[in-house]
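Annotated sample (chain length 203).
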Amino acid sequence: MKLDVHPATRLIAWLLLLIAVQSLSGSTLVGAFLLFPLFGKRVLRRGGQLIWRTRWLLLSLLIIFPWGIAGQPLWNGVGAPTQEGGLEALIHLGRLLLVLMAVAAFLETMPLHDLLAATHVLLKPMRGFGLDPDRGVVRLMLVLRYVETLPRPRDWRSLLDAPTLNVSERVEVNHQPLRWSDYGLTLVFVVTVSVFYYCQVFA
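Output written by the structure step:
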């Protein structure tokens, strides 16, 4: 019997996973990288693309932390990086790589209509604060489409020459209600991640 999980539940689980990643360090962080082959070729390929797009950010971590955190120098001499800074850089680099792979896995396994339905459900409680979930879903769709279709010109000025499109499109969102099983799974996810985070950070 296949468990039918609401897209909002999967989105919450993914967000909690990102929180859990931020507590990883040492052997647990290294062990997480051993799970990469389980993601499949499509996820690994998309993750590699995301990593390549953020290569300058990743490189900046390896420069800023070793020379920006005080500690024991790696070698004797002026301008030497510190051991503590180098270790901190590797930890943040590993966490960021895991986040990028999680994003790649999420984008490959969550269809757009499921993502819109999940976002609509999670934004509903914000209606009392003046946020329209319908507008939020439409804006999310437009942002995702813009990111996916944005060309990569070598000259940024060519973007100014791109014609303005005036397209009328109808957006349909599946209003599938949350079931008790979804609330139960969400509670299990929250408790599990909370305990894991506490054990990693405060143990």
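Annotation: The mean pLDDT is 81.
Annotation: The chain is about 65% helix and 0% strand.
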